[in-house]
Amino acid sequence: MLADKIIGQVDVALRTLFAEAHSTRPHPDADVAEADLNDTEKQHALGLMRVNHVGEVCAQALYAGQALTARDVDNKAALAHAAHEEIEHLAWTAHRVHALGGRTSLINPLWYASSFAVGVGAGLLGDKWNLGFLEETEHQVAAHLQSHLEGLPEQDDKSRAIVAQMQQDEMKHAQMAHEIGAANLPLPVKKMMTLTSKIMTTISYRI
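User: That's the sequence. What structure does it adopt?
Assistant: C-alpha cells below.
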C-alpha cells in the first residue's frame, strides 16, 4: 500500500538523519592508533570525513528512492544489500568525525531530500537506467575516495583505514550493478553528476 511505503520511507529518512548508525562489521580503524595531528591537519581530516559522511547520507537517500521505484525484485534486493553496507559507512564516518572533534553537516536534511528525489527519478526511468545510475555513482564515489586517500594527512591512518574499506565496498557495488544489467549512462549525464558532486563536497567540507 502507498501509505505503508510512505511510512517506511519516512522511517528510513529519520533513522539516517537523527539516529546513531551501527555497524555489524568492526570499524576498520578499531585497531589503528590515533595519530598526532596539528590543528590544520585535524581540521582538514575532519572536513574530508564530513564530506564522506554526507556522501553516505546521500547514498541512503538515493538507494531509498531507487528501491521505491525499481520494478524488478532482484534489483530491489541488490539495492537493499548495497544500502546495508552504506549504513555501516554512515556509522564509521560519523564516529570518525566526532573523534576528530567535529560535527556532521548542518544541512544533511537538504542533502537527503535532494538525493532521494534523484533516486526516485532514476528508478522511474526503468531498471537498467536505475542500475546504470547506481554503477556510475559508485565509480565516481570510488574515485572521490581515492582523492581523499591521497589528500588526508599522511600519518592519519585511522581515517585512511575507513576510507580504504569504503572504497572497496563502493567498487563492489558498482560491479554488482554492472553484472545485473546496468545501462551505460550518456556522457552529459555523467558530467552533470560530477558537477553536482563537486558542489556538494565543496559545501559540506565547511558546513
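Residues 35 and 156 are 6 Å apart (CA to CA).
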